[in-house]
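Sorry to interrupt, but I need a hand with the structure work. Could you add the entry underneath, on a fresh line?
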Amino acid sequence: MTNLNQAARGGGGIEVESRSIDYVPESERHAKLSSQGPFWFLGNFHFFTISIGFVGPSMGLTAGWTTLAGALGIMFGTIFMAFHGSQGPDMGLPQMIQSRAQFGYRGVILALLATLFVFVGFNVVNVALIADGMKSVFGLDPTMVTIISIAIGGLLSIYGHDLMHKVFKWALIATLPLYALVTLALMFGTTGAPAVHNPELGFNWIAFATQFAIGASYNISYAPYVSDYSRYLPKNTSRPKLITVIFISASLSGAWMIGLGAWMAEMLKSSDALAAMSQVGSSVVPGLGQLIVIVSVLGFLPIIALNTYSAMLTLLTGVDSIHKINPTRGARVISIIVISLVVMSCVLMIGGNGIHLLHQFLVLMLYFLVPWTAVNLVDFFFVRRGRYAIPDFFTPNGIYGAWQMRGIAAYLIGFAAMVPFFYINDSAANHEIFIGYFARLLGGVDVAWLVGLIVSGAVYLFLCRSLDLEAEDKVIRNIKESDFVAIARSTNDGQH
C-alpha cells in the first residue's frame, strides 16, 4: 500500500494521498509544526484578502479605520480558527468527522451542508476574482481562465496534503517580495496616481462594524478547514504552540492584506485587486505590474485547491453519513471532479463582478458557520475536553448515535436567534435584501454573528448537563490500539 508515510521517507517523491475521511495512524504522522506557519500565512496572503479591504471604503470608511476594523476582525476570527486547528493532532481526523460527536453520525449532515456551501462558495468567488482580474489586465477570456484555474486547483487537491503544503511554501516565497514591494510603493506614494484627499471618506459605525464582521467571518470560515491540514502532526504536538503558530501567521497576513486593500481603494479608487497591483507595480518598474499579476494568480491557485480538498472531505463525509462508503483514492478523485464541475458551472452561470459576490458571500457564510463553530469548540474544550471514542465516529451505532439532538438543537436555536439581527444589503445596487428587526433598530450594525456564538454555545453547554460523560469515559478507556489500527485498515482498503 502506498501512503504519505512512504513519500515522507523519500520513497518515490510526491504521491497521490491515500487517506481522506479516515483516521491517520500515528505511524503516518510525519508533518512538522514548522509547516503550519507558512501554510496559514499564505492562506490569507493573496489578492482575495486584499479585496476584503475594499469593503470599508466602498461604505465611506477611510483606509485607516478600515485597516483597524479589518485587523481586529481578522484577529477575532483567528481565535476560533486556531483552536479548531489544535484538534487535528489530538484525533488525526478531518474536522467534520469529529463533528459527529456533537451532531451524530447522520445528524452531522446539517453542519456539512453549511460547510460545503462555504467551500464551494469560496471557490466561486475566488475564480470570479481571477477571471475579472485577468480580463482587466490582460484581456483574457474569462471562460478560459475559469476552466484552467479550476483544473489546476482540482489537480493539486487530488495529490493532496503533502503536495499542497509544498506548493503553499513555494507560493509564499514567490509572492512575499512582490507584495512587500507593492506595500512600500503605497507607503511612499509611488503609485502612478496623484494623492487626492477624498472628503467622502470618514468614519461611521455601520461601515466599521461591517468591515469587522467580514474580517471575522473570513477567518472563522477557516474553522472547518484547519484540522484537515493539521491531522498529520504527531499526537504529542504542543497544543499551545500550535494555536500560537496558527493565530500569529493567519492574523499577520490577513491584517496586512486588508490594510493593503484599504489603501489601494482610497488612493487609487480601485475595486479590482489585480488591476490595482498591476498599476502600482508598473509605476515602480515598467512591466513589473504584469509580473505581479501573473505571480499573484499562480500563488492563489493553491487556495482553490485548499477549498476543493476540504469540500471533498465534506462531501465524502456526507455520503458516508447516509450510506457507508470505502474512501478510496477513486472516491477522492471522483468527488473532486464533481466539486470542480459544480464550481465551474456556478462561475459561468453567475458571471458578474467578483467584488460584489465577495461582500454578499462573506456575510452569508458567517451566518451559517457561527452556530457550528460555537457548538464544536464548546464540546471540545468545555464538555468532553478533548476526550473522544474515535472508533465510534465511524458507526451510527456507537456512543454518539445517528442523531445528537443537543448539537442540532443548539445550532438551529442559535441560527434562529441570529435572524432578527441579520443585515444583508446589496450596497452596489443600494438595495436591502433582508434587514432584521433588531438590525434596523441598531442602524444597520451587524451583530448577528455575536448573537449566534453566544446563543449556540450557551444552549449546547446547557443541554450537555444531562450528558453521561462517565459512561462515555468507560468506553474511551476500553479502546485498544488495535481498534485504531482496524479503523485505518478498514477505511483504507483497496488503496494498494
About this structure: The CA atoms of residues 53 and 258 lie 4 Å apart.
